[in-house]
Specification:
- The protein is of the alpha+beta class and about 190 residues long.
- It has eleven helices and four strands.
- The protein has a four-stranded antiparallel beta sheet, with helices on both faces.
- Helix 3 packs across helix 5, helix 5 packs across helix 7 and helix 9 crosses helix 11.
- The longest helix is centred in the middle third of the chain and has 13 residues.
- It is elongated.
- It starts with a strand and ends in a 10-residue tail after the last helix.
Length: about 190
């Protein structure tokens, strides 16, 4: 089970190492970690695969020198933590697409400010982007069509089975649909 851990506190040498050792001591396998420090304060997001519920994780991590706050979240509650870090570090997209189903990633996107979503769309692999857009509410599909080049959208649509590709194309605004149709591989579906 994947658990998101957000650890904040006073930045110091060895803090990340000490937190990682405690996570391992709880039986967790860190599958993703991202940290930053500002003005002597450290924030670290860990996505950890635990074999079972990590009872007591918060208390164990709060005993690490310098750690002042620990949030242990799973499922929907983790989406806000992912969004917070994704807003700062869009490159994190490449890791999150490995760990989250497109429906879950969509929940993270909804929590991001619109101006922070454009680079995230750009970093998604075409097949993942297509599966995400199939589930997206109309306003996010329209937004993606505004910020992404039609070539990227066409590449995404071409990864889908024909019925799903048609559904995706029908969800696009007319101007985007025409542009994507004209760029599909091999001239398919051109008028």
């Amino acid at each position: 089970m994947y658990i998101a851990l957000l650890v904040r506190g006073r930045d110091r040498p060895g803090l990340l190492r000490d937190v990682a050792q405690r996570i391992a001591g709880l039986g967790g396998n860190i599958v993703f970690a991202l940290s930053y420090a500002e003005e002597g304060r450290a924030s670290s997001l860990f996505i950890v695969d635990f074999p079972s519920e990590p009872w007591g994780a918060e208390e164990v991590l709060l005993r690490v020198d310098g750690v002042e706050e620990v949030d242990v979240e799973r499922g929907e509650k983790a989406y806000s933590l992912y969004a917070e870090f994704l807003a700062r570090y869009p490159a994190m997209t490449t890791e999150l697409v490995r760990l989250l189903d497109p429906a879950d990633f969509l929940e993270v996107l909804i929590r991001l400010a619109p101006d922070k979503r454009a680079p995230v769309y750009m970093l998604m692999p075409p097949d993942y982007l297509a599966r995400l857009l199939l589930r997206a509410p109309p306003e996010l599909t329209e937004e993606a069509c505004r910020v992404l080049p039609s070539e990227k959208l066409a590449e995404a649509a071409s990864t889908l089975p024909p019925d799903d590709a048609v559904d995706l194309l029908q969800s696009m605004p007319p101007h985007a649909r025409r542009a994507v149709l004209s760029r599909l591989p091999g001239g398919l579906w051109r008028r």
